[in-house]
Write a structure and sequence with these properties.
The protein is α+β, with helices and mostly antiparallel strands. It is 16% helix and 41% strand. It has an 8-stranded antiparallel barrel with strand order 1-2-3-4-5-6-7-8. Strand 1 and strand 2 form a beta hairpin. It is globular.
């Protein structure tokens, strides 16, 4: 009886689980309110490109290349792919996907740098 109760209690969370890796692979996520800034994922979700809002023509935007390590269905670590500075560690970003509604996704950017900074909630449009 106890196992049945636990199964019924956990069932809604299992049904509601989203595989964010599948949802964002092959897509570009653009910051809400931005034209170019965001991140795109390769079709297999193993590579990402970050874009900024520094250029007037989005086609001229030079991507920041990252390799992606998925910890689970909703958490990805993005690591700088090209070592430009031999004496510095690679830049690393942690994206914890929180919700998906249509073509809108909410992501918690987990702060892992020096200093005490809060994590940030980012909203993206999936293109």
């Amino acid at each position: 009886m106890k196992k049945l109760f636990l199964t019924l209690l956990l069932l809604p969370s299992l049904v509601m689980a989203t595989d964010f890796k599948t949802a964002v692979s092959g897509k570009k996520l653009t910051f809400a309110g931005a034209t170019c800034a965001g991140v795109s994922f390769s079709k297999d979700g193993a590579i990402a490109n970050m874009y900024d809002e520094q250029v007037s023509n989005c086609n001229l935007n030079i991507p920041f290349l990252l390799r992606v390590k998925w910890l689970n269905d909703n958490t990805a670590i993005l690591v700088e792919k090209v070592q430009k500075n031999k004496s510095a560690p690679p830049r690393v970003f942690v994206m914890q996907f929180q919700s998906l509604s249509g073509n809108k996704v909410t992501v918690k950017d987990v702060w892992i740098g020096w200093g005490a900074h809060p994590d940030q909630i980012q909203k993206y449009t999936i293109n």
